[in-house]
Amino acid sequence: MPAWRVCKYVLTLHDMIETMPKFVERGPLKSYLRRKYADYISVNAANKIVTVSEHSKKDIIKYWNIPNEKVVVIYEAASDVYFNPVHRNEIASVSNKYGLPSEYVLYLGGFDKKKNVNALVSAYRLLTSEVPRLVLAGERKWDFGCIKNIIEEYGLSERIITPGRIDDEDLPALYQGALAFIYPSLYEGFGLQLLEAMASGIPVLASDRTCFPEVLNGAGLLFDPGKSENIAENILAVCNDRDLRNELSNRSKERAKDFSWEKTAIETMSVYNNVVNIRKTCN
């Protein structure tokens, strides 16, 4: 935002990854300092800050030392398409398109370090071949090359599939064709893929860090993302217990109904209206 305020501002800030500097690329010192100054101006110039989880709100308040009432939490949501059942023929067609097995555990997302995909690969090293194969879906960039090397080093190329980017229209079938969805990330502001999987009605396993306990709210299994053994135990429990899968599927679908883009829009509009009514003139 401009340093000279010309109107009232509402700033949307999804997360504070700066609280975990090991995941932040600093770049040249001059660029880093300029960015830090610009962030400081934006945060302090804003009349209100909108963020996507209570966890992000706590990080923002602590990092920038700003009043609690300045930050408003408005959750994101999954598109309605994920709630609609996909016919098994379409699921089979999408599986054939990307070379997926009939049963698989799904991860969908990036491959940068904070996604912690390496721990998920290490967990699969501890599991027998009787466990359904793992699909690591997402664009092959960031640290994907490192992940690929680990898969080959562990001899898991036959058990871990990396289909690359999935077309948007194929995502509902990809989710609903999975035995379970797993998200081992170490830091997220919200984790939209998690909610998409929940809306799709499949069991969800997630890291017990940052926003995930808040988003799941008891609708899935939480694990310690720093312990591959714990990740493996949770995968095994879901794969071996049909009753547990059914229970988690039902919980996922119900929890996902608590979020909607209509609600997000209404709450966002309310923030803007309240800001307009704070004062008749700008500072």
Characterization of the model:
There is one protein chain. The strands form two sheets. The chain has a six-stranded parallel beta sheet with strand order 6-5-4-7-8-9, with helices on both faces. It has two domains: 10-77 and 261-276, Glycogen Phosphorylase B (Rossmann fold, 3-Layer(aba) Sandwich); 80-256, Rossmann fold. Strand 8 (204-207), helix 8 and strand 9 form a beta-alpha-beta unit. The chain is globular, with a radius of gyration of 21 Å. With 283 residues, it is α/β, with parallel strands linked by helices. It is 43% helix and 13% strand. The longest helix has 17 residues, at 29-45.
SSE diagram, text form:
Elements: E1 10-12, H1 29-45, E2 48-51, H2 54-64, E3 71-73, H3 88-98, E4 104-108, H4 117-125, E5 133-137, H5 144-153, E6 160-164, H6 171-176, E7 180-183, H7 192-199, E8 204-207, H8 212-216, E9 221-223, H9 228-240, H10 242-256, H11 261-276
How many helices does DSSP assign?
11
**Based on helices, strands and strand pairing, what is the structural class?**
alpha/beta
Distance between the termini: 15 Å
User: CATH topology of the largest domain, which one?
Assistant: Rossmann fold
Based on CA atoms alone, the radius of gyration comes out at 21 Å
Shape: globular
Order of helices and strands: EHEHEHEHEHEHEHEHEHHH
How many beta-strand elements? Answer: 9
Low-confidence stretches: none
How many domains?
2
Task: Please give the CATH class of the largest domain.
Answer: Alpha Beta
Record the strand order, biggest sheet: 6-5-4-7-8-9
CATH superfamily of the largest domain: Glycogen Phosphorylase B
Helix content: 40-55%
Q: Report the CATH architecture of the largest domain.
A: 3-Layer(aba) Sandwich
How would a textbook summarize the main sheet? 6 strands, parallel
Mean pLDDT: 92
Content of β-strand: 5-15%
